[in-house]
Amino acid sequence: MIAMKIVTTQQMKAIEAASLDHGLSYPQLMENAGKAAAQFIRKVIKHPQDTKCIVFCGKGNNGGDGFVVTRELFNDGVKVVAVLTDGVPVTSEAQSMLDELLNLGAVVIDYQEHADQVKALSQNTDIVVDAIYGTGFSGEPNELHKEIFALINSSVCAVFSLDVPSGIRADSCADNPYAVQADFTLCFDSMKLAHYLEPASLHCGRTIVLNIGIPDDCRENVGISTEVMEEEEVLGCLPQRVPNSHKGTYGKFLNISGSLGFTGAAILSTTSALRCGAGYVTLASPEPVIRDVTPVLPEATTMLLKENGEHQIDPSNIPELLERAKRCTAVLVGCGLGKSEDTRELVFSLIRGVECPLIIDADGLNVLASNPEVLLEKKGTIILTPHAVEMSRLSGKRLSDIQGNRFETAVSFAEKYGVILVLKGPATIVTDGKTSYINSTGNAGLAKAGSGDVLAGMIGSFAAQKLSGLDAARCGVYLHGMAADRCAKRLSQYGMLPSDLMTDLCQIFVEHEL
Fold first, then answer.
1. What is the pLDDT of residue 240?
2. Taking the model in full, what pTM does it have?
3. Backbone angles phi, psi at 256, to 5 degrees
4. 435 near 452, Cβ under 8 Å?
5. How many whole angstroms separate alpha carbon 57 and alpha carbon 107?
6. Which end of the chain, N or C, is more open, meaning fewer C-beta atoms within 10 Å of its C-beta?
7. 380 versus 2: which is more confidently predicted?
């Protein structure tokens, strides 16, 4: 299966421009888009002559797509009305489609001149097509458009948006309370960020990607760097076990986790590392944690650390930990450590001294937030795994800004500090600032303490087996979510626990002969 690419509006324009070298034209692309949309809409129309439809058409090329839809439905016998939301079109392509529609004798109404008539029609229609903005929206809708969007949203009918619901920015996941709420979004050629990331995606309903005749090679030289993770491609990254191998073949993983009261974080992260194939796993933690972990995790070796007055890791352990890290292929720090000044000193020292991949999670991220600039002093690959609140602390941005701009926040932070960032949440984002992946697995059953510890151990285990940092992160994220989806079917999202994921994870490996 080919991974689904996510394009920006500028990249989509470049793809369309590249198609001109293959004999296509902008009017032909508009014709293809409108016909493809009409063909899909026909699937919900049982009796065309008895079906009423309103197509709201903006002044740009999205409106032109809407005129084509209107013409196609008109020719089918649908009682269809095209409504001009902003007067006559401003592009020549859209204008020609409108002229053709008028020549057929179809009904075209100017909203600003006949608002009351349109409002009456909208309360007695079966289908509304939103062709007002498409990918062309930015800023805030004016009062006229707010009124039209509200009219569409109040109509008791099926709403189809062409490309992107009007009022939503295609290149953002940000919400807009005034935006059109579609039942179906008919996306032309390629998915955009708004189709996939919440909260913007919540306006899309069901998104359908329509082929508008653009050849595949038109996408090759436009710099597409974002894709949705797919099962076959992700699992293909995992190394096969070979007969002539030993524990050293599959890496040495050091997990610096746990403190008094947070033994579970150490157990979960260590267990998931073992289950994901690392050959030699060591848990480094204070005596209360080691005492409780040893009976339940006999497969892991342990490194007993001195504890401070708060029963957390004392900084006097740092030289020994740095020396041990030299013999490891990946290190994890942060799960259940506590947020003391001693933890801060530990994490900063590891960033400055560890040369193998270093995964920082949970409390490691919380103490890093006091001075993220230390990341610029790193020795090796750094993988950060924040959720939205931790990302807010790391970046200094408000939580609402993070949630409305998750993709931009993740990419800019990863690029600035030269790290791999895993921004957890619905459709988790994995990025190094240049290449980005959006996850397609997982469910709300993961919204429980301990799920992040499992994920951190998985990523660390894959990194220990010498996958690249980016591959280790995306494999961990995808398989974590995939196991959660299976687990929810067995135990429900309510009842599933992070520790239950191990059973489903192992079953995935069995089915793929890993």
1. 87
2. 0.92
3. -100, 95
4. no
5. 13
6. N
7. 380
Give the length of the chain: 514
User: pLDDT tens across 309-319, in order?
Assistant: 889 999 999 99
Amino acid at 168: I
Indicate if the pLDDT at residue 2 is higher than 60: no
SS (H, E, C) 281-336: EEEEEEHHHHHHHCCCCCCCEEEEECECCCCCECHHHHHHHHHHHCCCCEEEECCC
Taking alpha carbons only, the member of 83, 85, 211 closest to residue 136 is 85
What is the spatial distance between Cα 492 and Cα 347, in angstroms, rounded to a whole number?
37
Q: How many angstroms separate the CA atoms of 68 and 33, rounded?
A: 8
Q: Alpha-carbon distance 232 to 228, whole Å?
A: 12
- Of 467, 479, 485, 473, residue with least CA distance to 505: 479
First to last CA, the chain: 19
Domain boundaries, the chain: 4-224, 231-511
Fold classified for 231-511:
UDP-N-acetylmuramoyl-L-alanine:D-glutamate ligase (3.40.1190)
CB count within 10 Å of CB 492 equals 10
Task: Give the model confidence (pLDDT) of 389-425 as tens digits.
Answer: 999 999 999 998 898 889 999 999 999 999 999 999 9
Q: Could you read off the pLDDT of 475-489 as tens digits, one per residue?
A: 999 999 999 999 999
Residue entry with tokens 């989806």: 485
CB burial of residue 71 (10 Å; 0-12, 13-18, 19+): buried
Contact 97, 67 (CB under 8 A): yes
- Pairing verdict, β 206-210 and 226-228: unpaired
Name the residue among 33, 216, 61 with its Cα closest to residue 135.
61
Please name the amino acid found at residue 86.
D
pLDDT at 239: 87
What is the domain class of 4-224 according to CATH?
Answer: alpha beta
- Closest of 12, 76, 62 to residue 34, by C-alpha: 62
Mean pLDDT of 440-448: 97
Amino acid at 294: T
Give helix 61-75 / helix 26-41 axis angle, nearest 10°.
50
Please give the structure tokens belonging to residue 330: 């990946």
Query: What residues contact 224, with CB distance under 8 A and at least 6 apart?
Result: 5, 6, 7, 11
Q: Provide the 10 A C-beta neighbour count for residue 378.
A: 18
Q: CA distances (Å), 94 to each of 109, 127, 144, 149, 197, in order? A: 16, 22, 21, 21, 30
Question: How far apart are alpha carbons 145 and 149 in whole angstroms?
Answer: 6
